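Appendix B. Chain record.
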Amino acid sequence: MKTYVANSTDRDRRWLLVDAEGQTLGRLATQIADALRGKRKPEYTPHVDTGDFVIVVNAEKISVTGNKMTEKMYRRHTGYPGGLRERTLAEMLEQRPEEVIRKAVRGMLPRNRLARRQITKLKVYAGPDHPHEAQKPEPMEVSA
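Structure tokens predicted for this chain:
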């Protein structure tokens, strides 16, 4: 019996729609990461991009547990001396809510070229509207 390996002709890419309203950030991000990688499909192959496109709406209405709104910090460095910039989760949700979900999902993907291609299939929008109606996205089952 030979091992099955997916290739570009076998992949069936679907568009999935996720409503982030009231969802817990980390739990939602793990399920989105699995869908982007293709782990929810029987033809999953680790070194081939078999995943689906994922559209996330209502990113600004994501929820977290505990004191993470005030204690979770997002750090980046400008590259200049003394250039460390810090923002709390509450500030990030106010200014750039799409980046909160994108960073959470990206942290759950591997650190390689394939994952950098897979993260481009994630489309995140702060409000309930998105420009991908022509792709006919189907709702993704998100377990609570």
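Further analysis of this model is presented in Appendix C.
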